[in-house]
Amino acid sequence: MKYKLPRQVKTCTKTLENFVNKMKNLAKEWGEENVVDKKCEAVLSKNVPSSDTRGLMSELRDSCRDVIERHFKVKVDEVCELMNDQCRNSAVKVMEFSRSEGLDRTMPPTSVSTSTRLVGCRPATPLISLDSVRGGEVSVTMCSTDKDSSCRITYQGSSLSINRSHYKKLEDLFKATNATKEKEKEKDEFNSRVWCLLKRYKMLRSSIVGTKLCQENFGLHAALPHKAFHLLHRKFHVSFECFASPFNCYFSQYCSAFPDIDCYFGSRGSFFDFKPKRGSFQANPPFSEEVMLTMADHMISLLEDSQDPLMFVIFIPDWREPMTPAITRLENTIYCTHNILLASRSHQYITGNQHLQSVTHYDAVHGTQVYVLQNDAAIDEWPISHKDMDHLRDAMSYNREWN
């Protein structure tokens, strides 16, 4: 149950009343009317000025926190169990599909290694230019409309769609990663891998409502605008993404969530198993407090261990009420050389479903913190100025120009 602290006292009072009513309704469903009534009365009976209504709301929320957490934990556990079952069923189907198509489950040479060997980051040409990538003829069903053209890949009655530009992008990634002499076999294997890829990420994008899958959470795979990536490559020497997927990656080198299938399209595996010694990297992690904090700890550990130039450019939401632990960690480290705030509605992201429809941008409803972490060698190798950070701010705004 969420609430916002409005500015006007009258609005605060009304919001407080609504919160109390909703809390009592929930308590009635849970059979804990007496407990919640006592907590509400204890807080509301205090003689405080009307201007301190916000404080009452915070105190009431904290007082009822144990009841809320106790009952919602059961709901969350049920949802997680359903998600686990759905993912397990999807994995079984992918395994059956792989066997029927004669696809081995071994990892190609480009799969991730957990060793601490020296890992370099070679300059890479972005696979997505500022102009849209042109699609070509494919051996799958083509669906053409006035707005967009898509490819439909079907296996045993299960059809999955992808727009033609991203199909071509995946084809380029696949060819760059897998050297196969027999072109016909390569094409068949490619289409099979794409179907598995679409199926896997469809499950990840899905949220469970009851026992049915509801397609949403497209913000899960939101990416930076292409202009921002272009600037990061040109000014910040970035050529690797720490958190991406074959669908939303801008560079041909990236880390992702599913190395068993993503590795055929250039993934180096999980970022948390990736231990580079040098290079410049971009990170736009999932907006999970646990993931962001683990990312910050991993990056700082890498910077401490490396004597070569190593740099990370990080984009995370500006969550400060309450304070996100990752923000505290990043702002207090000695490796943070630059930090800017992108105000909400002043910058944009590319939607996470970009491979299903035309690339669209949306205004970020939250502020975004941008951090640059550098060790001493990176400061000497790739000096970043305040002007560069201003250019990055402009590049995150889709309609603004920068030089």
Features of the shown structure:
globular, 11 strands, three-stranded antiparallel sheet, 403 residues, Rossmann fold, alpha+beta, disordered N terminus
Low-confidence segments, given as residue ranges, are 1-9, 105-139, 208-216
CATH architecture label name of the domain at 222-395:
3-Layer(aba) Sandwich
The name CATH uses for the topology of the domain at 222-395 is Rossmann fold
So what's the CATH class of the domain at 222-395? Alpha Beta
Going by helix content, strand content and strand pairing, the class is alpha+beta
Radius of gyration, rounded? 24 Å
Average of pLDDT: 76
Shape summary: globular
Tally of DSSP helical segments: 11
If you had to describe this structure to a student in words, what would you say it looks like?
This protein is of the alpha+beta class. Among the domains are: 9-75; 222-395, Rossmann fold (3-Layer(aba) Sandwich). 43% of the residues lie in helices and 14% in strands. The chain has 11 helices and 11 strands. It has helices at 9-30, 33-44, 53-100, 164-177, 183-205, 226-235, 259-262, 289-305, 325-332, 376-381, 386-395; strands at residues 141-144, 149-155, 158-163, 206-209, 212-215, 279-283, 310-317, 336-342, 348-350, 361-363, 368-374. Helix 8 (289-305) links the parallel strand 6 (279-283) and strand 7 (310-317). It is globular and about 75 Å long. The two termini are 45 Å apart.
